[in-house]
């Protein structure tokens, strides 16, 4: 049909971004509590206040960590990259969704749930780090008295 992960399949490259976004909303509706917010010409996709996916230039990217990276590598999906103001290439922890998922709604939802799990683990790690920093700060303050 099309090369894996290269572009969305059933929506086609000629469809306006709004059409693709509506298509994503429909696919994600069974998850419940999904919100779409504009950002930098694309969309951040949230569940329970946590970003688990991005839509940029008509492509969907799921949040990925060490636990889920292998499935994206196995499908030859690229990681999201952008060029910084100083010309460097920067990568974010988001990888393009395999386009075959658009024709497999149940599996698409499984990948969404996995990305939500990544977002939850990321938020938990941030909260733990914040608590550790606060604890070190309190300990340092107590040691100076």
Automatic annotation (TrEMBL):
Coiled coil: none annotated. Residues 123-145 are annotated as: Disordered. InterPro entries: TfoX-like (IPR047525), TfoX_N (IPR007076). Pfam families: TfoX_N. Residues 123-132 have a biased composition (Basic and acidic residues). Residues 26-117 form the TfoX N-terminal domain. Transmembrane segments: none annotated. This is TfoX N-terminal domain-containing protein. The lineage of its organism: Bacteria, Pseudomonadati, Pseudomonadota, Alphaproteobacteria, Hyphomicrobiales.
